[in-house]
Amino acid sequence: MSGGKQTPRQKMIGMMYLVLTALLALNISKEIINAFITIDNGLKNTNSNFDNKNQMTYTAFEKAKQNDEKKAAIPYANAMKAKKLSADLCAYITSLRGKIVNLSAGFDEKSKVGDTLRLTLLEKPDDYDNPTHFMIGSDPANVTGEAKPLKAALIKYYDDLTKLLPEKSQKDFSTRIKPSVPTEKVYSGEEKEMITWERYNFYHAPIVAAIAQMDRIINDVKNAEGDAVNELFNSVNANDFKFDKLTAKVVAPTSYVFTGDHYTADVFVAAFNSTQNPSIWLCEHDSVKPYAVKPGTPIDSTSVKVEAGMGKYDVVAGGVGLQKWAGLIRVKKPDGTFDTYPFKQEYMVAAPSAAVFLEKMNVFYIGVDNPISISAAGVAPSDLSPSLSGGQMRSSGKAGSYIVTVASGTEATLNVGAKLNGVNKSMGSFKFRVKRVPDPVAYVGSIKADGIMSKAELQATSGVFAKMDNFDFDLKFTVVSFVMSMGVNGVFVEKKAVGPAFTPDMKQVLAGAKPGNRVLFEQVTVKGPDGTLRKIPGVSIKVR
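^ thats the sequence. predicted structure below, dont judge the formating
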């Protein structure tokens, strides 16, 4: 595409023009006149080349717009504005050229002959009075001729052209075109001082120099036009397919769904163009191979809707088990052709279910904390919402773990719900037996029920205590009262204690115990963690 950088030929023509302009101050010879004619011919050829190159860019721009209307619309519209700005300005400059030629050659003022008349046909190629009067006026210190509005038109053109570009490109573009933008003052090597732009370019310039100057300005205008349009074209395609590899992607919120629910997945190409939707075709899972598709593979291009570059695959989950699906993603390239990217995906369908695990026993016990764990396949613990009838339930502070308490009854029902895709769904209902905590066992020392103990061991014990045997809950029962009895010298002595400890009277009786005596600890009353009182079997100890 065309750009703003000048070719060596353009630079050479420009340098020759500057040298010849300087020579005019010394002598307007036939050789100098001919040199200006040669330069002007070169400038016309260069302008023609700019037109051709710029048209190539416009043609490519037109195709890019057809391929992606949304993306190219604004840059293309600005390119058309740049084209019109340039055409209008060049037409204006050409009209000035024609008027100068008409004045010098004596043609009618409205004649169009001067617009295109070859410089070799001019009768007075060294005429500088008419061009100077037309462009400068009568006083070079106070310009009243056409050079003044020309300067203003050029400044406005370059400013308007810059504003058409993306903001990030404007600074660099302004730097590139700066040498062509008219300034207030220009240093004159001939006069050794700063003079006006108008005077520098058109004062006392023979008609061949003035015409060549205008064709040079047109050259700069077309060059800036090409640079700007090329910048706009590049902004459309700056990020197109500049990747090492494009890969088909399938992203689903979950690959585990329940019957009756929807399985959804996003299907897209990594680094896709957000302004151009791909087309997505579904096909048999086993027919899709990496980067190749068997001829005749059955496809369906209507099943996946595509928005903002992404396809949304949405089907109702039917049969339980592993489900497979696959397809092809077709993406249009900048040249209008397509690239195809295959993909495969699987997901699991399961019937709604939940699991409840009682961490201690297989029943709920009255009056104690019953820890349980609840889980559901494919559901995060935080999305579970269990509830209990026949009791109360609270979180233990750990995800999926709860504490159940029941006060009475024979049965409790646990209902497990889950929040799936913003909707509460039942995962199952579970019934549990409600039972009273088993009775504890009375102990005296290490003896329960019936045993033998020495007198010293018996006296060393502190009293009667209750203990849960073979029970997973860590429960404490407190001995509220008990009765101790023993035969002493043929007389049966009975003592009662409140609390678990031996009373002084009991200790006195035990001090008189002899081998063979049997000591009975009966009527043991205990208090459980639920506050209820229970009578439990006692302990019989034979003294050895």
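Residues 396 and 402 are 5 Å apart (CA to CA).
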